């Protein structure tokens, strides 16, 4: 099983990824290059080292609040995290990003089962809204099976890729019946819980992958899922697994209230 998480070293010809698990992944597989103008809620979560390294995606909830995956921020320090919004590229070496004051991973997050894989990032200063930087509404109800969804991010384009694409990509997916998805994952001894949802295609070919973790899964412009985990990337029979936003709406509102 693989998280859609990685630590990315930008190089002249690409972005090299070092994943924390060889089997679980997160990236855009089978998609196309996208424009941030069509996904203005998408942000890049960066780690400050000698430069800003893309580690995850996120979604703008409010000027100072970004929704992401708990596994992206659990165990990290807010002082080393930056948020970059309104940009198509993660290869912008001069980008400084917006500093972060607090990281709030869900207290119930379990790194073995991936339950409650959701978190909030609180920025020091509010993001400046523009045509390229906008919040996204959050789902109050679960999307129906068969609904058309779209996921965006800077994840790998194939499971065996060594480099991330520098430019934002997106792919259209389908919400998969949870019982069908869950039965498939049980064959690998993984459990898709009630607070998760699946999206992709049973025949494979389109999915998220390493680097997409924490990013948005949207249906009709509403955030329904957070990129979380899966078996490989785009594998037949194993659609991606996402944290269900509507299952955590009370937690999101409660944790974000002080920063609105």
Automatic annotation (TrEMBL):
It is an enzyme of class 3 (hydrolase). GO terms for molecular function: serine-type endopeptidase activity. Its EC number is 3.4.21.4. CDD domains: Tryp_SPc (cd00190). It holds the Pfam family Trypsin. Keywords: Disulfide bond, Hydrolase, Protease, Secreted, Serine protease, Signal, Zymogen. Residues 28-257 form the Peptidase S1 domain. One of its GO terms (biological process) is proteolysis. Residues 1-21 form the signal peptide. Its main location: secreted. It is found in: Secreted, Extracellular space. SUPFAM superfamilies: Trypsin-like serine proteases (SSF50494). One of its GO terms (cellular component) is extracellular region. InterPro entries: Peptidase_S1, Peptidase_S1_PA, Peptidase_S1_PA_chymotrypsin, Peptidase_S1A, Trypsin_dom, TRYPSIN_HIS, TRYPSIN_SER. Belongs to the peptidase S1 family. This is trypsin. It comes from Drosophila melanogaster.
């Amino acid at each position: 099983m693989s998280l859609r998480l990685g630590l990315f070293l930008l190089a002249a010809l690409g972005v090299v990824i070092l994943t924390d698990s060889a089997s679980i992944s997160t990236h855009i597989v089978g998609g196309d290059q996208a424009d941030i103008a069509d996904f203005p809620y998408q942000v890049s979560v960066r780690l400050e080292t000698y430069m800003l390294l893309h580690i995850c995606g996120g979604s703008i909830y409010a000027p100072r609040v970004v929704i992401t995956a708990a596994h992206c921020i659990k165990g990290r320090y807010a002082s080393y995290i930056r948020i970059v919004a309104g940009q198509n590229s993660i290869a912008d070496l001069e980008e400084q990003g917006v500093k972060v004051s607090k990281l709030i991973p869900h207290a119930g997050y379990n790194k073995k089962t991936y339950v409650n894989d959701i978190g909030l990032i609180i920025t020091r200063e509010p993001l400046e809204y523009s045509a390229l930087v906008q919040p996204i509404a959050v789902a109050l109800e679960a999307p129906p099976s068969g609904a058309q969804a779209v996921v965006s991010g800077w994840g790998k384009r194939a499971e065996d890729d060594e480099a991330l694409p520098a430019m934002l990509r997106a792919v259209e997916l389908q919400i998969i019946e949870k019982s069908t998805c869950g039965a498939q994952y049980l064959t690998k001894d993984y459990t898709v819980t009630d607070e998760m949802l699946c999206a992709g295609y049973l025949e494979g070919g389109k999915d998220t992958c390493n680097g997409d973790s924490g990013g948005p899964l949207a249906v009709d412009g509403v955030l329904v899922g957070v990129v979380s985990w899966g078996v490989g990337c785009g594998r037949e029979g194993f659609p991606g697994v996402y944290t269900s936003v509507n299952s955590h709406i009370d937690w999101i509102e409660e944790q974000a209230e002080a920063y609105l």
